[in-house]
Every structure is written in structure tokens, then in C-alpha cells.
Design brief:
The complex is a heterodimer. Chain A is α/β, with parallel strands linked by helices. Helices cover about 30% and strands about 25% of the residues of chain A. Chain A is built from 7 helices and 13 strands. The radius of gyration of chain A is 21 Å and the shape is globular. In chain B, helix 9 (about 315-340) runs antiparallel to helix 10.
């Protein structure tokens, strides 16, 4: 079975993160790593491949060329190869443009399963998988906390606010996994030593047949019109501890029905 | 532009992996292991699975076939989290398994290396005795020929992994008339009758590493237990210990760095007289000195690792690295406690452990005095 895992390089979280007021985009300088939720998707793909005893795990990503440094971690974990769409013309793509580009790349790969992590830590949209599935006209299951693949179909347990859904779907399908699904493995040293030698294709938009006006700013339907810091919370209560601090905190929590 | 201070991308990725592993899998075990003086032996198979016990061993035995620099990165990141656990891991991989790879017969390699590298069996290494440390050739343990094999009698002290080991490399005289060169090395399986662990030793630092006193009493081993299949392997084995000295150079620098990181953070957070400690020159300069010394120690240690990995002579540099890093760690950890003030003296804060752990480096695997002796010899004095 061929499994594609969509992954993304994100800037490391930290207090220094900011939006660039000039481009109104996230400042992507500094330390970067693979989106940690994607590791659950990679892990699941590897487990499915290992259980089947055959197959291929392909990483599909869009980003700057240096994103390969982060993507290598998933190759070290055991993925077979990577396809990175890296093109100046893709910079600033919103959900609409990104899902179009990814769908084009996935069409070319034609996998039986497309896996996503639950969301990306930088943009935190948690909808990209839905748009990609829509474009590929494939069934889609999200927030999967248990997954079984057998007999040409998947059975998934989907976490919701009110309990679980048990969903069956034929293959091919697009799946977004919850971080509770599995515990991602550490890349082994052997995997690390071999990762760089695995195929890593960097492709341009034109290679995928993506028209210039369907990617980047031109292909996006959203524009950021202004950036403002979140308004301060007016009802902040500051408790100075004069020996009765603990009681005051308790009273505060009880009043708000937290305790 | 030949001088390079860059690690390869693979080495950087390894560093990240070990850092993540140590934070998630080792750190939660440290407090318990330190308090009860118990090496968490269950981590060995996990390290084995990740290839971290076989970094410098060839692939045919389940190793990775990487170099000393790569191994040092592993040691560094592990030691920043726990020096004691690192010591036990190093004793197993560097001191027990490595000499078997270097000097063992094919049968010995087949028998011990794959399982050691997988972390399925634990190795130890026993030279030191109650009455001999630095004067290694002064050891009293003897092995006499009997029934085609040998009978070992003697006591060994301060043996890392002593109570846990499945096998132990034991140095013993096979030819009393030949000081030094008459010493042979045996691989003794733990279940051999006459091989007893008589005492687990309580220590000042490195408490999460297991240290024991061993007794060999009429302990009969077959001729196949002789390391390399021939007598007198001890001298070569001692020379091979150079790899351990390089590791110690990196390890001590790592302990110092852990202490520095804690002290820096504390100095930024703790306030006195209305401003953070880090704003006082007495503390700023101390931290600047600490960082400088750590940088120097690390550079020297990695230079020794580079020489070793390149197959160049490094007897002098390996001893310098071990000696200098031990001194730096001693001083830096002490200053880190000082910066923490009263809290530095409290077990809840990690710096008191770093302080106790650092002291071992100037004593174990060749004292600082022995290292200076080697260095002065190398200087043609």
C-alpha cells in the first residue's frame, strides 16, 4: 500500500515568535522543526506499512527548500522518500491555494491513503486535510484515535466533543489523525545516518501543472488587512499574598465555579 | 580554510534525537535512580534499539559504524541530563564491549557483541582492586592454568555495573614474573561459580550508576574466556582506554554546561537588592568565566575526538581533555552552587548533584595526576 503523509516545517514555538508587520505573515526565521502533530501521522503510516509487510511511505510537503532539513526527521523515522514543493510562486499561499497545490502533488502520487496530523502548530487551522480531500473527491475522516486498515477499507474511531464516532470508509481516503493515536518513535541512529540518502525531490509548481494564478498570493482568497495585538483582558484580578492569598484564590475559583 | 568546527547534518540530527530521548526517557528516572542508587537497566534495550550502544561498532555486529565524534555527541547530551546513568552506559559500551571488539577472537565477538550492542546483556570491566588503582600493574588477582582453562583468585573494587553485569572483563596475572606484560584479561560470565558480588558501594556522586566490589574465589573459566585467545593482552587493553579518556573530556564539559545553564537561569530570575543577580558584575563575570572555560574544555575534547576519529595519534590530547575538563567541571559546578546560594545546597535543585558528579572525573579511569604524568611524558620530559 502506498501511503502519502502531508507534513509541514514550522518555526519552533517560543515567546520570540511574531508576525512580520511588513508582509503580515508569520516570521519564519530562527529555529525550525517538523510540525509535531505530523509525527503522529508519520508514525501511523510506518506502522501500517510494517504491519502489511510491504508498501511505501511518501512525505509530501510545501515550503522553503531548507524545509528538507526538518523533513529529514521523518525520513530518519523510516519514511521512504519525500516530495517537497518549493517555489517562489507558492509563498503566501492561504488554505485555498495550499490545498490546491497539495492536491495536485497527491494526484501525481496516487496513494491509497493520505495522512495528515491534526493541525499545524504555526497556523493552527486544522482544516487543510478537509480541503485537500474535497479537491481529490475522496472520503475524509478527522481526529482519528484508533485506526484499522483491512480488506480495502478503513475503520476509524473519531474523537468528538461528545464521545466517539466509529466510521468506515473505502480506500483511497484522506485521514487526519489525533495526537492520541500513537506515540511517535525516535528516529534511530541508523535511520538518521541513512536519511540524507533517501530520495528527496524538490519540485516546482509547473512540474505539477499548477497554474501561476492558483498558488501563492495570486491563488489565495484571503488577505490579511491588519494586525492587532489581542485586547487586554479587563477583568484580570491580581492577588497579592499577605498570608491570605490561598483563600483568595480559592474564593475566586469557587465564584467562577472552577472548584 | 581547512579548520572546521562544524558537525555533519547527521551528527546534528543525532544530537537532537538524543536530547529528546534523554529529556523524555532518562530525566524522569533520574531522581529515583539517584536516591536509591540504582541504575535503571531497562534503558539499555531502548538505547540499543536506537543504535546508541553500537555507535562505533561495525554493522556486522549490529553497530552503526560511525566515528568517535558521533559517539561523543551522544555522551555529551546524555551527560547533561545524568552523569551517573551515562557512566554505566559508557562502562558497558566503551570499557566492556569495545575491548572485545578490538581484541576479542571471532567467537568472542559473535558471542558478546550483538547482544551487548542491542542492550540485551550488560558488560563490566574490572581492573582496580582494593589495594591498586593508579598502579594498575600492581594488581594481585591471579589466574592459574588448570584442566586446559584457568582458575581466577582475587578481589576487584569500584566496578561499574558490578551487580548488574552479565559478563565482566577481569585483569589477572598469568605470569607473575613479568610485571605488566604478565597480565591477561578474561571475559568471565556472571553465572560462573566462584564469581561473587560481595558489596554494592555507596557513593558521593554518580549515584545512579552501579558500583560494586567483586570477589573471584577459585573461579574456573575455560581457555576460550581469555580475551583475544592469548595471554598478556592487558597492555594493549590499557592503551585502548584512550577512547574512554576522550569520552570523559566531553562528559565533564557536559556536566559543567548543565550546571552553567542552571546557574545562568537562576541568575536571570533571582533578584537581590531590587535587580536580578545577573545584573551584578560579581555574578556576570563568574558566568562569563564559566562559559569561557566550558567552551575551551569542549573544544579540546572534540579536538581529541577528531584526532581519534582521524586515526591520528592523540595520547597527549586525550589525557589533556580528560584532565582539563575534570578541572573545569570541578570549578564550574562549585561556582554554580555558589550562585544558587542556599538553594544550591538543597537537593531539590540539580546543581548540588552536578557538583558531586563532577568530582569523579578527576579520580576515575586514570586520576588527574596520572593524566598529567602521561602529558608530561608526551612532552618529552
Amino acid at each position: 500500500m502506498k501511503i502519502a503523509v502531508c507534513v509541514k516545517e514550522v518555526p519552533d514555538a517560543g515567546p520570540g515568535r511574531r508576525m512580520d508587520p511588513g508582509t503580515m505573515r508569520l516570521d519564519r526565521s530562527g529555529e525550525r522543526s517538523l510540525n509535531s502533530y505530523d509525527l503522529n501521522a508519520v508514525e501511523e503510516a510506518l506502522r501500517l506499512k510494517e504491519a502489511a509487510g510491504e508498501g511505501e511511505v511518501v512525505l509530501v510537503s510545501m515550503g522553503q527548500e531548507k524545509a528538507l532539513e526538518s523533513i529529514r526527521k521523518a525520513l530518519a523515522m523510516g519514511a521512504d522518500r519525500a516530495v517537497l514543493i518549493s517555489d517562489e510562486g507558492a509563498a503566501g499561499s492561504d488554505l485555498v491555494a495550499t490545498s490546491y497545490v497539495l492536491a495536485k502533488a497527491l494526484e501525481r502520487e496516487a496513494p491509497q491513503l493520505v495522512l495528515f496530523g491534526q493541525s499545524a502548530q504555526d497556523s493552527d487551522g486544522a482544516v487543510l486535510w478537509a480541503s485537500v480531500a474535497e479537491r481529490l473527491k475522496l472520503p475524509m475522516v478527522s481526529q482519528i484515535s484508533e485506526l484499522e486498515v483491512a480488506g480495502g477499507q478503513i475503520t476509524a474511531k473519531r474523537q468528538t466533543e461528545f464521545g466517539y464516532d466509529r466510521i468506515q470508509s473505502p480506500l483511497p481516503a484522506v485521514l487526519a489523525v489525533a495526537d492520541s493515536l500513537n506515540e511517535p518513535r525516535y528516529p534511530s541512529l541508523k535511520g538518521i545516518m541513512g536519511a540524507k540518502k533517501k530520495p528527496q525531490d524538490v519540485v516546482k509548481l509547473a512540474d505539477l501543472g499548477v497554474e501561476a494564478d492558483r498558488a501563492g498570493q495570486a491563488g489565495s482568497r484571503t488577505t490579511v488587512s491588519a494586525l492587532n495585538p489581542p485586547p487586554s483582558r479587563g477583568d484580570t484580578v491580581k492577588i497579592e499574598d499577605d498570608g491570605t492569598g490561598a483563600q483568595k484564590i480559592m474564593a475566586f475559583l469557587v465564584e467562577r465555579k472552577f472548584a | 580554510m581547512a579548520l572546521s568546527y562544524e558537525f555533519t547534518e547527521e551528527q546534528e540530527d543525532l544530537r537532537e534525537m538524543v536530547r529528546e530521548f534523554a529529556q523524555a526517557e532518562i530525566l524522569p528516572l533520574v531522581e529515583e535512580a539517584e536516591r536509591h542508587e540504582k541504575f535503571p537497566v531497562e534503558i539499555l534495550p531502548k538505547l540499543g534499539e536506537l543504535g546508541l550502544l553500537g555507535i562505533v561498532f561495525p554493522e556486522e555486529y549490529g553497530g552503526i559504524g560511525a566515528d568517535k565524534i558521533t559517539e561523543c555527541i551522544f555522551v555529551e547530551e546524555m551527560a547533561k541530563v545524568c552523569a551517573g546513568i551515562t557512566a554505566s552506559v559508557n562502562a558497558h559500551a566503551d570499557l566492556a564491549a569495545f575491548p572485545i571488539y578490538k581484541f576479542g577472537t571471532d567467537e568472542q565477538k559473535e558471542r558478546y557483541l550483538p547482544r551487548s550492542i542491542a542492550g540485551e546483556i550488560v558488560g563490566a570491566y574490572a581492573i582496580t582492586e582494593p589495594n591498586t588503582g593508579s598502579d594498575a600493574a600492581g594488581l594481585a588477582t591471579r589466574a592459574e592454568k588448570k584442566n586446559g582453562g584457568y582458575v581466577i583468585n582475587g578481589r576487584k573494587n569500584f566496578i561499574t555495573n558490578g551487580t548488574l553485569c552479565d559478563y565482566c572483563l577481569v585483569a589477572a596475572y598469568t605470569d607473575r614474573s613479568n610485571r605488566g606484560e604478565g597480565i591477561s584479561v578474561f571475559i568471565v560470565d556472571r553465572n560462573t561459580p566462584g564469581f561473587e558480588v560481595t558489596r554494592k558501594l555507596e557513593k558521593m556522586g554518580h549515584r545512579s550508576s552501579d558500583t560494586a566490589e567483586l570477589v573471584f574465589e577459585d573461579c574456573e573459566v575455560p581457555a576460550e574466556a581469555l580475551l583475544g585467545g592469548k595471554e598478556g593482552a592487558f597492555g594493549a587493553l590499557m592503551e585502548a582506554l584512550i577512547t574512554g579518556r576522550v569520552s570523559h573530556g566531553v562528559k565533564s564539559a557536559a556536566i559543567a554546561e548543565a550546571a552553567f545553564d542552571a546557574a545562568r537561569q537562576y541568575a536571570l530570575e533571582r533578584e537581590a537588592f531590587g535587580r536580578p543577580l545577573a545584573k551584578f558584575q560579581a555574578i556576570r563575570f563568574k558566568l562569563a568565566q564559566m562559559a569561557t572555560k566550558i567552551e575551551a574544555a569542549k573544544s579540546l575534547a572534540y579536538k581529541a575526538a577528531w584526532l581519534y576519529a582521524s586515526g591520528k595519534p592523540c595520547v597527549k590530547e586525550a589525557s589533556m581533555a580528560k584532565y582539563f575538563s575534570a578541572e573545569v567541571a570541578d570549578w564550574v559546578t562549585r561556582e554554580a552552587v555558589q550562585i544558587h546560594g542556599g538553594y544550591g545546597y538543597i537537593v531539590e535543585y540539580p546543581v548540588e548533584r552536578y557538583y558531586r558528579d563532577a568530582k569523579l572525573a578527576s579520580i576515575t579511569e586514570g586520576t588527574s595526576e596520572i593524566q598529567q604524568l602521561i602529558i608530561s611524558r608526551e612532552l618529552g620530559l
